Amino acid sequence: MEIKERIEQLRTLIKYHNERYYDLDEPEITDYEYDQLLDELKKLESQYPEFNISDSPTKKVGGAVKRELRKVRHDVPVISLQDVFNKDEVYAFVEKVKSQIPDSKFVVETKIDGLTVLLRYREGNLVEGITRGNGEEGESVYENLLEIKSIPQTIPTTLPYVEVRGEVYMSNEAFEMIMKKQQESGGKTYKTARNLAAGSLRQLDPQIVRERNLDIFVFNLEISEGKEFVSHAESLEWLSSLGFSVVPDYQICSTADEVWESISTIGEKRWELPFGIDGAVVKVDNLDDRKVLGSTSKVPRWAIAFKYPPEQKETVVEDIKVQVGRTGRLAPLAILTPVKLAGTTVSKASLHNQDYIDAKDIRIGDTVVIQKAGDIIPEVIRSIPEKRPTNAIKYMIPDTCPICNSPTVRDENGADIRCGGDECLAQLIRGITYFASKDAMDIEGFGPSTVESLMSEGYIKNIADIYHLKEYRDELIEKGIVGREKSVDNLLKAIEKSKDNDLDQLITGFGIKNVGKQTARVLTSSFADIDEISNATYDQLIMLPDFGETVANSVLSFFSFNSTHDLIEKLKKAGVNTQSKVSEISRDDRFAGKTFVITGTLPNLKRDEATRLIQMYGGKVSGSVSKKTSFVLAGEEAGSKLTKAEELGVKIIDEEEFNNMLK
After folding, report:
1. How far is CA 106 from CA 68, 101, 490, in A?
2. Beta strands in 325-365 (DSSP E)
3. What is the per-residue pLDDT across 413-433, written as a single tens digit (0 to 9) for each?
4. pLDDT tens digit sequence for 22-39
5. Per-residue pLDDT tens for 302-324?
6. 526 labelled as ligand-binding?
7. Which of 15, 42, 66, 111 is catalytic?
8. Does residue 253 have a known ligand-binding role?
9. Which of 57, 133, 256, 401 is 20 to 30 Å from the Cα of 195, by its Cα?
10. H helices, E strands: number in the chain
11. Which residues are recorded as binding Zn(2+) (predicted)?
């Protein structure tokens, strides 16, 4: 790959992951993996200045400013730190500082994994709280910050203006409690405490912040009008005396050896801390020394952030078992000798499929190296053949389902092996859970534990039975299977509400192989009701947008079973909508042959709603901008897709213009 092409690829990747992390609070890669991408781009831009551009992600800090919250300019630019990844880079930083200031000292702190905020106090009263945003401008989250108990609303000082910088975070304990509640209720789950903390702080309802027990550590004094300090450590002591929770256990060091020892100590204990960290920070302590060292256009020369690699441990594969998923997929699972990894005890890890097991030559009895993908999900990195015992056993996924004993079959063009049975209990539980999920029928409170309880008690055997639960209201309240009266009534109300959903949600909820939300919308935009869909021919299906042979055959196969038609009849009798609410309007094909890309936050329409409208009128929605794109529908914080559209000359429209096109 040519240098220019690699640079452009890195910029696209980094912009995408910036949006996932800063704006959506849903990162897809680890901080370490992200930092490696950014570091590679910085080095390439330095080596090849002819490819440098002003709007490169290396020249920006953080994410966009969200539309819903008031924008606020920062008094002091909130810049990032230079990342380093190994001992040599740490020693090089210390030696460079020492070459200019021989007697310099350093403060080493834990780098809290949360959301940066700036707190402003006038005459001792908290008057504003701002997120980092893009470094020059943030968003006011003042009302939400008032709900965080550890943020003092008044401080004992007569100074006219004080501004401090801190990191809002969620403790591991609070995160686990909330995730347990979310899973039980079928609500949204987050991969990390940082994501949940950031998502909570950006909510428009302060009540949510209060319920989620957010916390803060203050780690820098930005402004103190009327009072000066000699060192950073001195300012932290002063902030602590005012009632702030300052970053804990910081160390003052004089040499590179001491700095590295402090970094190593934090690394050794990081998984035992009650909160998440994403590195260690090394800062020059003396504030006048910082002025001498200065900053580049992007980072200060007086500080670095050390990023720890993912922790890896050796353990033994004691056994391999399979779990049966919603679609009948047999998922092999390594049963491991328990080992403490990244803060929790790990005893299981996914092995994905038979090809994965064979490629890594993982056997029962093997010693293997494991780590947590994204510091969350345990995964087996490799086996260690030299430590293999003589009685190690090769593993093959069974040819019969471990739940219902039906024969298993391998996907024709894939690596997955599935149960061939129609009445497998494991599939039924996961299938009903998916049917009620937010992506499908969106029945709030109908999570996995509720489904399993109702199935084990015999109240539901298939998705149609959900709509007869109201007949057992008193029994459910008496037995407390899904909670007491209020919980039962809320669940029944959510079930009743789901009857009026549009047909695409029902089709999605069926969990047809290879058919997701987008495909379901195409079907319900093209056919008037579920009967038309079930009677559709291959020739009709293959002509639909984005339908290939695989998808068409999956739809035909699902509707060929008698059990499917029995289920549909039961749903009709229960009053569930089986008519397409968009099929009539879709006969107006004004967007036929047009491809839209939606980016940013629209003032009134949700992205799903805009997608549905485009498809109603025969258009297609794509996730990326190309020369074939007809329109880019852009809202605020549009990001890299907008830039790409401008480069390619693709027509850009806003929500008002889109609505005019609909009229």
Report:
1. 40, 12, 57
2. 330-341, 344-350
3. 778 888 877 667 667 787 888
4. 555 555 566 566 767 777
5. 999 999 888 889 999 999 998 87
6. no
7. 111
8. no
9. 57
10. 24, 22
11. 401, 404, 419, 424
